[in-house]
Every structure is written in C-alpha cells, then in structure tokens.
Design goal:
This protein is of the alpha+beta class. The chain has a single domain, classed as 2,3-Dihydroxybiphenyl 1,2-Dioxygenase, domain 1 (Roll), CATH 3.10.180.10. It is 19% helix and 34% strand. The protein has helices spanning 23-32, 71-79, 93-102; strands at 10-19, 39-43, 48-55, 58-65, 82-90, 113-114, 120-124, 134-138. The chain has an 8-stranded mixed sheet with strand order 2-3-4-1-5-8-7-6. The longest helix has 10 residues, at 23-32. It is globular, with a radius of gyration of 16 Å. The termini are far apart.
Length: 154
C-alpha cells in the first residue's frame, strides 16, 4: 500500500476479527484452545456482541450479530462464519489515511472514528487489500487495549 520512499509506520497486527454465529460456543472453543479470559461487550449501534482475547501483542476478536438486518448479519449470510477483517496498529491514523488517499487507495472511512475501547479506527476497502477488509487502529496512549475481565456471564 505504500512505496519504499514513504513507508507507512504499521506498528503491529493489532487484531484479527472473526464472525461467529454463536458467541457462547465460540468462546468455549477459544477457551479450549488455551485462550484466557477475554473482554465481552456489545456495540448496539453496529448490531454486534463481541469478545476480545489477548493474543501475543495483539488480540483475537470474535463478533456475533445481534441485529438480523445489520451489516455483520448480512456479511455472515453471504460468507458464513470466518475472518471478517485484519487490523493494523498505527501511531497517527489521520496521517496514514492522508497518505493512503494520496496514493489512490480506496477507503471506506475517509476520517477516523471512535471504535470499541475508545480506539480510533478506519477501514480500507477490501478491493484495495487483496479482498481482505482491513482496519487501521490508533490506540490512545492511556490504553494499550481492552480491559481484560471475565467473559462468563450468568
């Protein structure tokens, strides 16, 4: 996406997001795979419930649609369960978006917006990234990631 004379400073893979039909069953599977406790939360405006598990220096995020008419439900209806997007951490998301726009990269978000956990996020269109929906994430200095708390609920 960038040229060698003007590299974009990607810090790391921030998270991989996986769409699942049954969040409780997926949570149990990830616990069986050895993942510890995650952070469970809902984003009503996006019609999802999610769990974020720490994984190395990044995260695995499981999302499940709660709105049958929402974007994630439509995605799952077309593609089934599986990888939804890959996210890369950047230091200055606005500057990265400017650089990508200058290079003619097709963006979904022209400006950063606030995502889960207060992270600044923006999405790059899959057509610009070999068919993979790609998210850029800028984490505020005060927070390296989501709070880790028990995902078990009554």
């Amino acid at each position: 996406m960038s040229n060698p004379s003007n590299p974009i400073p990607y810090r790391q893979v921030h998270h991989t997001c996986i769409v699942v039909a049954d969040l409780d069953a997926a949570e149990a599977l990830y616990h069986a795979l050895g993942f510890g406790e995650g952070h469970r939360f809902a984003i009503e405006s996006q019609g999802i419930e999610a769990i974020t598990f720490p994984c190395g220096d990044g995260y695995v995020e499981l999302i499940s649609p709660t709105d049958p008419e929402g974007a994630i439900a439509r995605f799952m209806g077309k593609r089934g369960e599986g990888v939804h997007h890959v996210a890369y951490r950047v230091d200055d998301i606005a500057a990265v978006l400017d650089e990508l726009r200058d290079q003619g990269v097709r963006l979904i978000d022209e400006q950063p917006r606030t995502g889960a956990h207060g992270w600044k996020v923006a999405f790059i269109h899959p057509e610009a990234c070999c068919g993979v929906l790609t998210e850029l994430v800028e984490v505020p200095d005060k927070s390296d990631g989501p709070p880790v708390q028990s995902t078990h609920h009554p």
